[in-house]
Amino acid sequence: MNRKTISLTVIIIICMGALAALFVLDPEAPGAIGRIFASNILSMLKILPFVFILIALFDVWVNREIIERHLGEEGGAVSFLWAVLLGGTTVGPMIVCLPVAAALYKKGARLTVIFTYIAASTVVRVPMTLFESSYLGVKFTIIRYAVSLPLIIGTSVLMGRGLQKKNYEIKE
User: Fold this and answer.
1) pLDDT tens column, 108-133
2) Phi, psi of 89 (to 5 degrees)
3) Is the separation of the CB atoms in 90 and 128 below 8 Å?
4) DSSP states of 11-61
5) How far is Cα 31 from Cα 166, in angstroms, rounded to an integer?
């Protein structure tokens, strides 16, 4: 057996052991876990087909040169603004932004910009911002953005440069 098979086997054994222990401690728990799992799978199946259709359309309709100009090496600092704006308008759960990020990378976006997009899609979403500002106040939202966005961009730059030094590539 190779290392991946052994690792997967160990993970499965640990999960099954935890589920068995949970069943002993609370016989109702495995049924609740199954219902939650099924609910999450159904909610993803409602969203993901449309996401993949939109990504396919993006792949066909958007020229590589446009992405390279705005989000690639030519984009400069403005590319981070584009990534934050795109991330803020991404709708759906976190799993939606990952295929979009892969499509952007395939079209020539920099790795640092991809990291910024992924982080921004979880932190600066428009619906979350509206909800947050209505309950916690606009001042809180502005302060959170003022702290979060520089950290997101700085971390993205550090991660991207670190991976570039190691000649990291995403394989298809």
Assistant:
1) 999 999 999 999 998 888 888 899 99
2) -100, 0
3) no
4) HHHHHHHHHHHHHHH-TTHHHHHHHHHHHHHHHHHHHHHHHHHHHHHHHHH
5) 46
Instruction: Give the dihedral of Cα atoms 6, 15, 119, 143; nearest 10 deg.
Output: -140
Do you know the residue count of the chain? 172
CB atoms within 10 A of CB 86: 21
pTM of the model: 0.76
Domain boundaries along the sequence of the chain: 1-49, 62-172
For the chain, which residues score pLDDT lower than 70?
1, 172
Contact between residue 118 and residue 98 where contact means Cβ atoms under 8 Å apart = yes
| Cβ within 8 Å of residue 116, ≥6 positions away | 80, 83, 84, 87, 152, 153, 156
| Residue 82 identity | W
Provide, for the chain, the percentages of residues in helix, strand and coil under a 3-state DSSP scheme, each rounded to the nearest 5.
85, 0, 15
Q: Which residue has the tokens 């302060």?
A: 143
